[in-house]
Design a protein that fits this description.
455 residues; alpha+beta; 13 helices
């Protein structure tokens, strides 16, 4: 076979999957229609934020460079009145992991640079998947130039219009919403750019979202009934002017988009799997679209590398989480960015009242940092400080992209489990202060487990 895994699509979801697999020595072929193997498929920004949980996934990729260039810590979020006066400002304490405002093109370049240094990962730029055939334990992928690649698995990370999803006859169930939004991304050399801030504007006349970070701004406005999308793009400067002098900006993108809440009917057909927007797409109002896809491949990568016999676990764990995220995004859009004037007035009064509560910043920060959960209730382990062999470290620094066995001084493993973990390059660590006799097996995605896939 040409590879263990073929990945269709080298956006951030496909690239992160390739990197996580490549670090484990898995042979990967990545196919992407973009002709430039380093620059990435999109020159313009799209995703705007990544939460602290998703950053932990990216930190599993050893040697991923340029964090300061593509990730700006977000320390302030606001709810603004229709005249842009703050109704509520939340500041994240310095000791709480922050979300980041994302420069996606730079992240994609950093990911592709990392893939180029991985000996088991090969990127075929300028090529697309056109057909596939499954036979026994092999999937044969045909590309648009007539060439073929064979592998044990094919993963479609090729977006909401996924070719791979169509080739396995999976439907894309859900709703596409008709309300268009105008998005404008701009760069600025203006020295007065404020601290990184995310803002909802509670204006039923024209709901909007605004982002600000050093050197860059983004605005998203809901278009009103009867407004022509092309005409609104031409009016972008008019909409920007209340915020900043348009002459101080270099507009990188001004485009109209609609959003979707859709999920593929199945995320696996034989040896073909779907991840990211190919498997699901969600409204943008909680900034979790890209994050959901990266969570997909955080789970899928270790299953492909270590437990291919248990791959049904992937959809079983991820589909309920995506459904929860989608419901949350839809609710946020309806409540915070709705056009009902009475509801908006009530929301503004409520927000002002909530802002008077003592300790609100800390409560919100605690909620944002809460551990993620599997459908069975298992909580993801935090990146907690540890002392191993007298050295200060953290869980993520200790494990990297591997399994872990964290134990107290008398914790024990049966011989079969120990042999499996050793064969899969697990990290065994005796941790000072860990409960005596306590032992925790940690998956590469940082969820604890009591069993390993010994088959």
């Amino acid at each position: 076979m040409d590879a263990d895994v073929v990945i269709a699509g080298c956006g951030p979801v496909g690239a992160v999957l390739a990197a996580l697999l490549g670090e484990r020595g898995i042979r990967v072929v990545v196919v992407d229609p973009a002709s430039d193997s380093r620059a990435g498929p999109h020159a313009h920004p799209r995703a705007a934020v990544l939460d602290s949980h998703v950053q932990r996934i990216l930190r599993r990729i050893e040697g991923l460079d340029g964090w300061d260039e593509w990730a700006t810590p977000l320390r302030r979020s606001r709810l603004l009145d229709k005249d842009r006066r703050p109704l509520l400002t939340l500041r994240l304490p310095d000791d709480v992991p922050a979300g980041v405002m994302l420069d996606q093109p730079r992240l994609e370049r950093a990911l592709r640079d990392r893939l180029a240094r991985m000996p088991t990962v090969h990127l075929h730029a300028g090529r697309s998947v056109t057909a596939l055939e499954q036979s026994g334990d092999v999937v044969t992928v045909t590309l648009d130039d007539g060439s073929t690649s064979t592998a044990s698995w094919l993963v479609g990370c090729d977006g909401a219009s996924s070719t791979v999803r169509g080739l396995i006859d999976a439907s894309y169930d859900g709703v596409s919403y008709p309300e268009p939004w105008l998005v404008v991304d701009a760069r600025t050399d203006e020295p007065g750019t404020g601290e990184p801030t995310f803002s909802y504007v509670l204006d039923p006349a024209r709901p909007m979202v605004a982002f600000e970070r050093p050197g860059a701004r983004r605005w998203e406005w809901r278009l009103l009934p009867g407004e022509d999308p092309a005409g609104m793009v031409m009016r972008a400067e008019e909409l920007i002017r209340p915020w900043v002098d348009p002459a101080a900006l270099r507009v990188e993108r001004a485009a109209v988009f609609t959003f979707h809440a859709r999920t593929a009917s199945t995320w696996r057909r034989g040896r073909v799997l779907l991840a990211g927007d190919a498997a699901h797409s969600m409204p943008p109002f909680t900034g979790q679209g890209l994050g959901a896809g990266l969570r997909d491949v955080a789970t899928l990568s270790w299953l492909l590398a270590d437990a291919p016999g248990d791959l049904d676990r992937y959809e079983r764990e991820r589909r309920p989480a995506v459904a929860r995220m989608t419901r949350s995004a839809l609710l946020t859009g309806r409540v915070v960015l709705g056009r009902n004037r009475l509801a908006a007035a009530a929301l503004r009064r409520f927000v002002r009242t909530v802002g008077l509560l003592p300790g609100l910043d800390a409560r919100v920060a605690k909620a944002a940092a809460a551990p993620e959960r599997l459908p069975d209730g298992t909580r993801q382990l935090p990146d907690t400080p540890l002392v191993v062999d007298g050295r200060q470290t953290t869980l993520d620094e200790l494990l990297g992209n591997r399994w872990g066995v964290i134990r107290g001084e008398t914790g024990t493993l049966d011989s079969e489990t120990r042999a499996w973990l050793t064969a899969h390059d697990a990290v065994f660590a005796d941790v000072e202060g860990f409960g005596k006799g306590q032992l925790t097996i940690v998956r590469p995605d940082r969820f604890p487990t009591t069993t390993v896939p010994l088959t």
